[in-house]
Amino acid sequence: MKIKPFLESENDDIRYASILLMGNLSKFGSGEPVFKDQIHNVLVSLLLHLVDPNPQVVKACKFAMRVCAPVVGSEQITAMFQNHLHEDKSLHYGEFINDLTKYLIQDFPGMLNFYHISVIQFFKSNWPEVRAAAAMFIGFLLGNLQQEHFSQLNMATVTKGLVLLLQDSDPVVRAKAAEAMGQFH
Membrane spanning segments where (predicted)? Predict the structure, then answer.
């Protein structure tokens, strides 16, 4: 809980170090329910910082997610993180998040409200890359969500956030927000 604020630090070195620390702590938290909750608590931040403008932060996220994966509690997500999150390999973020949201919906339906609220908080991130990734994440989450789960999401807040992103100064953010809104059905 004390590390979480540093994951969003504007200082690249602090962001990098806090993410590495989170990953290294997972070696000691295996089997601890409280640590599992904390991993879920920072998962959205780690996922969105996979597109961080600092390449070292991206590598740290990949490392942290690979070593924390067994604690998450999903064999499919663990396998996905182990197979796709290699520090020196590129990642097709859209495909990765699209597949991941399917597993999150399937394996953690009770966490959907928490995940979508966490993602919405990143609509105001300092980094346009992270704002665009947040729009993509919410878009794929909505696109993959079955009808029975929609009641868990605050669609008014999602819509309001995406409308604000449509007015963002960065054209990529605006495009990703429009794509996310295309998932509404």
Answer: none
